[in-house]
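Re-run with default settings, no changes from the original entry. Doing this only to confirm the output is reproducible before filing.
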Amino acid sequence: MTALEALNEAVLDCHRCPRLVAWREQVAREKRAAYRDETYWGRPMQGFGDPAARVLILGLAPAAHGGNRTGRIFTGDRSGDFLFASLHRTGFANQAESISRDDGLELRGAYIVAAVRCAPPANLPTPQERDNCAEWLEREVALLPELHVVVCLGGFAWESALRLRAALGGGAVPRPKPKFGHEALAEGEPWPLLGCFHPSQQNTFTGKLTPPMMDAVFARARALAWGA
């Protein structure tokens, strides 16, 4: 077992946030009617992807009936459908959809992780819950030595990535903080941050985030990571 695999096993035993533990388990028991015959994951979310990734994709937290159901980040929900279709178009994924942990999806040159590992009520983790999860994020990213850029899906991920960068040797969080925005770039060590609107239904259904917009972010991430 590699160090990365061992870490992803260890995270499954995390109970640091009582509110999140209660919520993830309640959702797994009560289920959504459409998934009533499925066994929900109902545990913390592991990272997923290529251990030699040059691009890290950082999300907010697993969806209650997406990752918290399927056991893989961005798998089984509309946000994931939008994300993985873009990753496939831009050459980071071998297929355009993610349905379950064993559906054959593989990432190439990319790794996906959430800033908060458990599904939060209303998709809103507290600052304390983010901080409780920070150690897992720091330890996992430290085991991805080939990273060249972090794509931050939304403002929460952007804030978490600024703190992550500081924790991993990049110095203090800059003041004033770099502002999040779609295709915003925050240079710095050990790698730059690239902003992307989160592929939530609120953004994709209203046209705030379109497929070409997301594809452009990943095309830019590829250029930053490989110098192409």
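The chain has one domain: 3-226. The mean pLDDT is 96.
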